[in-house]
Specification:
By secondary structure, the chain is an alpha/beta fold. It has a domain at 1-73 and 187-227: P-loop containing nucleotide triphosphate hydrolases (Rossmann fold), CATH 3.40.50.300. The chain contains seven helices and nine strands; from the N terminus they run βββαββαααβαβαββα. It has a six-stranded mixed beta sheet, with helices on both faces. Helix 2 (90-100) packs across helix 3, helix 3 crosses helix 4 (134-147) and helix 4 (134-147) runs parallel beside helix 5. Bound molecules: adenosine-5'-triphosphate. Adenosine-5'-triphosphate is lined by residues 11, 13, 23, 25, 43, 45-51. Pfam families: ABC_tran.
Amino acid sequence: MLELRDVSLNFRTSKGTFDHGVHHVLRSVSFQLFENETLGIIGRNGVGKTTMLRIMAGILAPTSGEVLTHPGKTASLLTIGLGHKPDLSGRDNALLSAMLQGASKQQALTYLEEIKAFSELGDSFEEPVKTYSSGMKSRLGFTTALLTHVDILLVDEILSVGDAEFRKKAEKAMKDRICGDQTVVFVSHSEGQITDLCDRVLWIDQGRVCAAGEPGEVLDLYRASMR
Ligand SMILES: Nc1ncnc2c1ncn2[C@@H]1O[C@H](COP(=O)(O)OP(=O)(O)OP(=O)(O)O)[C@@H](O)[C@H]1O
């Protein structure tokens, strides 16, 4: 469904600690994402997990290597507050996001009432997003991406935000999608969520894939590396 082949990504940096002003974030990463699977990505802070999702979403281009996708397949990155326009209402932001994720305007309009209901934003749905708390923004972002139908859902740590009640509801909705035919890539620091939701896990360290396979086995290796 999607394949990264020998993908490397460098950022230019002014920090002297990196190699001649170049920070090698991903180094020759290769893997395939199969249809209908939920692939977890684990690793310490700053090892390149979000960068990998952004490459898979087409937001960042790799410095070298290839990202191969099936023609016509859509991928959407689900992350907090990405791309919200602060002066537009929740409704208009949801419409815009749904269209950016590949829906036609007509299709996107049909999602709006469901997004309003699931996000429980009530009358605030009509207010500018700049008046929202961060929890309200995350409800809007999560719900819009969840209810807009994309082929590959790229989920960045999103289930760890919001209040406990909404988190529970979001987790259940995500599980329902995963149990259906949704293909998901899921970055999380929660071992519980990874074990619960994923079919397969990649462990990333220093920009490389250290292990890939069954969640229990990869989590054991990851934990052992930290001892
Ligand atoms: N636009 C950028 N310019 C320069 N460096 C960047 C940029 N974006 C990310 N980085 C660096 O790339 C590295 C990987 O960042 P990334 O966000 O992918 O890590 P992560 O594994 O998702 O971390 P976390 O678990 O903390 O969310 C970090 O060292 C970060 O500082």
